[in-house]
Specification:
Layout lengths: L5 H9 L12 H4 L4 H39 L8 H23 L21 H22 L12 H25 L20 H38 L8
Helix pairs in contact: 3-6, 4-5, 6-7
Length: 250
Protein backbone atom coordinates (compact mmCIF):
# COMPACT_ATOMS: atom_id res chain seq x y z
CA UNK A 1 0.00 0.00 0.00
CA UNK A 2 2.94 2.36 0.67
CA UNK A 3 3.76 2.37 -3.05
CA UNK A 4 0.45 4.10 -3.73
CA UNK A 5 0.68 6.65 -0.94
CA UNK A 6 -0.04 10.33 -1.41
CA UNK A 7 3.69 11.06 -1.55
CA UNK A 8 4.19 8.69 -4.46
CA UNK A 9 1.16 10.11 -6.22
CA UNK A 10 2.54 13.64 -5.93
CA UNK A 11 5.91 12.40 -7.14
CA UNK A 12 4.26 11.05 -10.28
CA UNK A 13 2.42 14.31 -10.75
CA UNK A 14 5.32 16.76 -10.62
CA UNK A 15 8.38 15.04 -9.14
CA UNK A 16 10.19 15.27 -12.47
CA UNK A 17 9.79 19.04 -12.84
CA UNK A 18 13.21 20.65 -12.37
CA UNK A 19 12.79 24.13 -10.84
CA UNK A 20 16.43 24.97 -11.58
CA UNK A 21 15.47 25.65 -15.20
CA UNK A 22 14.09 29.15 -15.70
CA UNK A 23 10.35 29.17 -16.24
CA UNK A 24 9.71 25.66 -14.89
CA UNK A 25 8.63 26.81 -11.45
CA UNK A 26 10.02 26.94 -7.94
CA UNK A 27 9.76 29.47 -5.09
CA UNK A 28 11.19 32.38 -7.10
CA UNK A 29 8.78 31.75 -9.96
CA UNK A 30 5.81 31.50 -7.57
CA UNK A 31 6.82 34.83 -5.99
CA UNK A 32 7.29 36.63 -9.31
CA UNK A 33 4.03 38.53 -8.81
CA UNK A 34 2.89 40.02 -5.53
CA UNK A 35 -0.08 38.44 -3.83
CA UNK A 36 -2.09 41.65 -4.20
CA UNK A 37 -1.52 41.88 -7.96
CA UNK A 38 -2.21 38.17 -8.44
CA UNK A 39 -5.49 38.43 -6.52
CA UNK A 40 -6.61 41.57 -8.38
CA UNK A 41 -5.85 40.09 -11.81
CA UNK A 42 -7.63 36.88 -10.85
CA UNK A 43 -10.77 38.68 -9.72
CA UNK A 44 -10.86 40.80 -12.88
CA UNK A 45 -10.32 37.99 -15.37
CA UNK A 46 -12.53 35.50 -13.54
CA UNK A 47 -15.31 38.09 -13.63
CA UNK A 48 -14.69 38.84 -17.31
CA UNK A 49 -14.57 35.13 -18.15
CA UNK A 50 -17.79 34.39 -16.27
CA UNK A 51 -19.62 37.25 -18.02
CA UNK A 52 -18.34 36.09 -21.42
CA UNK A 53 -19.55 32.53 -20.77
CA UNK A 54 -23.00 33.60 -19.61
CA UNK A 55 -23.55 36.14 -22.40
CA UNK A 56 -22.30 33.84 -25.17
CA UNK A 57 -24.38 30.91 -23.92
CA UNK A 58 -27.46 33.13 -23.80
CA UNK A 59 -26.87 34.37 -27.34
CA UNK A 60 -26.10 30.89 -28.69
CA UNK A 61 -29.22 29.47 -27.09
CA UNK A 62 -31.30 32.16 -28.78
CA UNK A 63 -29.73 31.56 -32.17
CA UNK A 64 -29.75 27.77 -32.17
CA UNK A 65 -32.95 26.84 -30.37
CA UNK A 66 -34.79 26.28 -33.64
CA UNK A 67 -31.85 24.45 -35.19
CA UNK A 68 -31.67 22.13 -32.18
CA UNK A 69 -35.39 21.44 -32.32
CA UNK A 70 -35.17 20.51 -36.00
CA UNK A 71 -32.14 18.34 -35.34
CA UNK A 72 -33.89 16.43 -32.56
CA UNK A 73 -36.91 15.83 -34.76
CA UNK A 74 -34.79 14.24 -37.48
CA UNK A 75 -34.18 10.47 -37.28
CA UNK A 76 -30.75 9.76 -35.93
CA UNK A 77 -28.80 7.34 -38.11
CA UNK A 78 -25.41 6.07 -37.10
CA UNK A 79 -22.94 6.71 -39.89
CA UNK A 80 -19.51 5.16 -39.77
CA UNK A 81 -16.63 5.94 -42.07
CA UNK A 82 -13.14 4.55 -42.41
CA UNK A 83 -11.55 7.98 -42.20
CA UNK A 84 -13.36 8.80 -38.96
CA UNK A 85 -12.36 5.51 -37.33
CA UNK A 86 -8.73 5.81 -38.44
CA UNK A 87 -8.57 9.38 -37.12
CA UNK A 88 -10.08 8.30 -33.80
CA UNK A 89 -7.56 5.47 -33.38
CA UNK A 90 -4.68 7.78 -34.31
CA UNK A 91 -5.79 10.39 -31.77
CA UNK A 92 -6.07 7.75 -29.03
CA UNK A 93 -2.59 6.41 -29.82
CA UNK A 94 -1.02 9.88 -29.79
CA UNK A 95 -2.70 10.84 -26.53
CA UNK A 96 -1.75 7.49 -25.00
CA UNK A 97 1.90 8.03 -25.93
CA UNK A 98 1.79 11.54 -24.49
CA UNK A 99 0.35 10.25 -21.20
CA UNK A 100 3.00 7.52 -21.10
CA UNK A 101 5.80 10.04 -21.57
CA UNK A 102 4.44 12.22 -18.78
CA UNK A 103 4.27 9.28 -16.37
CA UNK A 104 7.77 8.15 -17.34
CA UNK A 105 9.22 11.62 -16.73
CA UNK A 106 7.05 12.20 -13.63
CA UNK A 107 5.47 15.33 -15.12
CA UNK A 108 1.85 14.20 -15.31
CA UNK A 109 0.70 17.62 -14.10
CA UNK A 110 1.72 19.09 -17.47
CA UNK A 111 -1.20 17.23 -19.05
CA UNK A 112 -3.39 19.98 -17.57
CA UNK A 113 -1.78 22.54 -19.87
CA UNK A 114 -3.86 23.54 -22.89
CA UNK A 115 -0.73 22.92 -24.91
CA UNK A 116 1.63 20.43 -23.31
CA UNK A 117 4.95 21.98 -22.40
CA UNK A 118 8.06 20.27 -23.65
CA UNK A 119 10.39 19.53 -20.76
CA UNK A 120 14.13 19.80 -21.11
CA UNK A 121 14.72 16.16 -20.18
CA UNK A 122 12.81 14.17 -22.80
CA UNK A 123 12.42 10.54 -23.71
CA UNK A 124 13.10 9.48 -27.33
CA UNK A 125 10.41 10.62 -29.78
CA UNK A 126 8.65 12.81 -27.20
CA UNK A 127 9.43 15.90 -29.27
CA UNK A 128 8.00 14.20 -32.35
CA UNK A 129 4.84 13.22 -30.46
CA UNK A 130 4.50 16.82 -29.27
CA UNK A 131 4.53 18.20 -32.81
CA UNK A 132 2.37 15.41 -34.21
CA UNK A 133 -0.23 16.11 -31.54
CA UNK A 134 -0.32 19.80 -32.42
CA UNK A 135 -0.54 19.06 -36.13
CA UNK A 136 -3.58 16.92 -35.35
CA UNK A 137 -5.21 19.99 -33.81
CA UNK A 138 -5.46 21.25 -37.39
CA UNK A 139 -6.15 17.94 -39.11
CA UNK A 140 -9.19 17.07 -36.99
CA UNK A 141 -11.13 20.34 -37.50
CA UNK A 142 -10.43 20.32 -41.24
CA UNK A 143 -11.63 16.72 -41.49
CA UNK A 144 -14.79 17.49 -39.53
CA UNK A 145 -15.46 20.60 -41.62
CA UNK A 146 -15.47 18.57 -44.81
CA UNK A 147 -17.91 16.10 -43.18
CA UNK A 148 -20.50 18.87 -42.87
CA UNK A 149 -23.81 18.18 -41.11
CA UNK A 150 -23.53 18.94 -37.40
CA UNK A 151 -19.94 20.06 -38.04
CA UNK A 152 -21.04 22.94 -40.26
CA UNK A 153 -19.42 26.07 -38.79
CA UNK A 154 -21.26 29.22 -37.85
CA UNK A 155 -21.09 32.27 -40.16
CA UNK A 156 -17.78 34.15 -40.19
CA UNK A 157 -19.47 37.20 -38.63
CA UNK A 158 -20.65 35.16 -35.62
CA UNK A 159 -18.10 35.32 -32.78
CA UNK A 160 -20.21 33.94 -29.92
CA UNK A 161 -18.51 30.53 -29.96
CA UNK A 162 -15.11 32.25 -29.92
CA UNK A 163 -16.25 34.43 -27.02
CA UNK A 164 -17.40 31.33 -25.15
CA UNK A 165 -13.97 29.75 -25.66
CA UNK A 166 -12.26 32.90 -24.38
CA UNK A 167 -14.43 32.88 -21.27
CA UNK A 168 -13.58 29.27 -20.48
CA UNK A 169 -9.90 30.04 -21.12
CA UNK A 170 -9.89 32.83 -18.53
CA UNK A 171 -11.78 30.82 -15.90
CA UNK A 172 -9.62 27.71 -16.40
CA UNK A 173 -6.31 29.58 -16.24
CA UNK A 174 -7.05 31.93 -13.37
CA UNK A 175 -8.70 29.25 -11.21
CA UNK A 176 -7.54 25.66 -11.79
CA UNK A 177 -4.11 26.23 -13.33
CA UNK A 178 -3.18 29.09 -11.04
CA UNK A 179 -4.28 27.35 -7.84
CA UNK A 180 -2.50 24.11 -8.73
CA UNK A 181 0.57 26.09 -9.76
CA UNK A 182 0.71 27.92 -6.43
CA UNK A 183 0.23 24.72 -4.45
CA UNK A 184 2.85 22.71 -6.37
CA UNK A 185 5.10 25.62 -7.45
CA UNK A 186 4.92 24.30 -11.02
CA UNK A 187 4.56 27.01 -13.67
CA UNK A 188 1.50 25.62 -15.44
CA UNK A 189 1.09 27.45 -18.74
CA UNK A 190 3.11 30.36 -17.31
CA UNK A 191 0.51 31.32 -14.72
CA UNK A 192 3.19 31.83 -12.02
CA UNK A 193 5.93 33.58 -13.99
CA UNK A 194 6.62 34.43 -17.63
CA UNK A 195 8.62 32.26 -19.97
CA UNK A 196 12.17 33.46 -20.53
CA UNK A 197 11.33 33.97 -24.21
CA UNK A 198 8.18 36.01 -23.49
CA UNK A 199 8.42 39.29 -25.46
CA UNK A 200 6.25 40.91 -22.76
CA UNK A 201 8.42 39.73 -19.88
CA UNK A 202 7.62 41.79 -16.80
CA UNK A 203 5.04 42.22 -14.05
CA UNK A 204 2.22 42.80 -16.55
CA UNK A 205 2.92 39.79 -18.75
CA UNK A 206 -0.40 38.13 -17.88
CA UNK A 207 -2.31 41.23 -18.96
CA UNK A 208 -0.53 41.20 -22.31
CA UNK A 209 -1.04 37.44 -22.67
CA UNK A 210 -4.75 37.73 -21.96
CA UNK A 211 -5.00 40.37 -24.67
CA UNK A 212 -3.12 38.65 -27.46
CA UNK A 213 -4.61 35.24 -26.67
CA UNK A 214 -8.10 36.73 -26.84
CA UNK A 215 -7.31 38.10 -30.29
CA UNK A 216 -5.87 34.75 -31.37
CA UNK A 217 -8.88 32.84 -30.06
CA UNK A 218 -11.26 35.21 -31.82
CA UNK A 219 -9.50 35.12 -35.18
CA UNK A 220 -7.66 31.80 -35.44
CA UNK A 221 -10.73 29.59 -35.79
CA UNK A 222 -12.23 31.98 -38.32
CA UNK A 223 -9.04 31.90 -40.38
CA UNK A 224 -9.14 28.09 -40.48
CA UNK A 225 -12.75 28.17 -41.69
CA UNK A 226 -11.95 30.89 -44.25
CA UNK A 227 -8.95 29.00 -45.60
CA UNK A 228 -10.95 25.77 -45.74
CA UNK A 229 -13.82 27.40 -47.60
CA UNK A 230 -11.36 28.95 -50.04
CA UNK A 231 -9.33 25.77 -50.50
CA UNK A 232 -12.23 23.44 -51.33
CA UNK A 233 -13.29 25.16 -54.59
CA UNK A 234 -9.63 25.54 -55.56
CA UNK A 235 -8.98 21.86 -54.94
CA UNK A 236 -12.02 20.80 -56.96
CA UNK A 237 -11.03 23.15 -59.80
CA UNK A 238 -7.50 21.70 -59.81
CA UNK A 239 -8.83 18.14 -59.95
CA UNK A 240 -11.12 19.04 -62.87
CA UNK A 241 -8.22 20.74 -64.64
CA UNK A 242 -5.90 17.76 -64.24
CA UNK A 243 -8.57 15.30 -65.28
CA UNK A 244 -7.75 14.05 -68.78
CA UNK A 245 -10.49 14.33 -71.42
CA UNK A 246 -12.20 11.09 -72.29
CA UNK A 247 -10.87 9.47 -75.43
CA UNK A 248 -13.50 9.06 -78.11
CA UNK A 249 -13.92 5.49 -79.31
CA UNK A 250 -15.28 5.01 -82.84
Amino acid sequence: MSRYSLHNLMDWMYGGVDPSFAGNGGPECAAFLSGQQRLLESLVFLSVGTVEILVSLWKLRQQHVRELENLLQQPQTKQESLGKNVLLVLLCLIFGLEVGFKFATRTVIYLLNPCHLVTVMQLPFETEIYYIQHVMLYVVPIYLLQKGGVYTPEPLCNFWWALLSTGFMFVYHFSILQILGLVTEVNLNNMLCPAISDPFYGPWYRIWASGHQTVMTMTHGKLIILLFQSAVPTFKWSMDLLRLPAKKID
